[in-house]
Amino acid sequence: MSEVKKNKLRKRIFDIIQIGNKYDFPSRFFDYLIVTVIILNILTVFLSTFDQLERFSSFFTVIELSTMSVFCIEYILRIWTADYLYPKLGKFTARMRFLISFDGIVDLLTILPFFFLDGFIVFRMLRVVRIFHLFRVNAHYDSFHVITTVLTEKKNQIISSVFIIIVLMLASSLGIYSVEHEAQPETFRNAFSGIWWSVSTLLTVGYGDIYPITVIGKLMAICIAFLGVGVVAIPTGIISAGFVEQYTKNQHSDTKFCDIKEVGEIFVDRESCFMGMNVSDIREKYNIVILVVLRGELTIVPTENVKVKINDILIVKSEKIVKSKK
């Protein structure tokens, strides 16, 4: 096989195994296949823990073997085509980048327990990592994207609120230890016992295994419990406000035209009909000329074969308003 044909094959495989390209039938079929395999694999892991279903253990083994084979093949293909995922990097660097990415680590940790299941307890414990494959299912919908966007945009406020929680937790743990240690030396043996109590109190969990018995300790617990309600409400309010802002932005930033007859700006989300389409296809189908593609910090002057991706901002020229959602 010539190098050109090999590169075309690798590019085609990359397009197929990428999630969310709803205009390419093989890619959509692969997406549904992977989602089905993930659900089957996780369902098998859960069902195999029931003693009543032990007679189906051979059947579960066959399913696990089949699904893990698919995971292994997908993992190898993603490594093989990683340079298309990171086009600015060389082949080796791109593959290393994928290996240390979240998806690469989850894929690897999903596969390892299957080969070392009978060897070490730590590998058997890694079976829980398979649950993270469910993020692939959510990747087909806008909800998970909204969550990650909100957490990214509000990270400074969230970090500040978490810092406040940590400060209050440390202060209350040392305070309760100082007050209760003499009265309950076996319960509040050290500051860590105070931390456990402060966490359960601040976060309004209240397990009840550790609690103050002195008057000062009880008064302190009341104050900390009230503070906990307010402290937990801070990050909750920040995230809730972020969701409202993001959904409002998605509704109103779908199509924005500076001049209706000439230049416009289109934000591409997961529901956009432009997602996954080539620049040339968009021009032919919608009579829109894409002048510039803003992709993160990159400014791309598109060629005919450039594909539109999620979160792209398209600077377009058109004689009519075209909504980017169906």
Automatic annotation (TrEMBL):
Bilayer topology: Multi-pass membrane protein
Transmembrane intervals: 29-50, 56-77, 98-117, 158-179, 191-213, 219-244
Localization: Membrane
Recorded superkingdom: Bacteria
All residue ranges annotated as the Ion transport domain in the record: 28-249
One of the record's GO cellular component terms: voltage-gated potassium channel complex
Keywords recorded for this protein, A-Z: Ion channel, Ion transport, Membrane, Potassium, Potassium channel, Potassium transport, Transmembrane, Transmembrane helix, Transport, Voltage-gated channel
SUPFAM superfamilies: TrkA C-terminal domain-like, Voltage-gated potassium channels
InterPro entries: Ion_trans_dom, RCK_C_sf, VG_K_chnl, Volt_channel_dom_sf
Record GO biological process: action potential
GO molecular function: voltage-gated potassium channel activity
PANTHER family linked to this entry: POTASSIUM VOLTAGE-GATED CHANNEL PROTEIN SHAB (PTHR11537:SF254), VOLTAGE-GATED POTASSIUM CHANNEL (PTHR11537)
Protein name per the record: Voltage-gated potassium channel
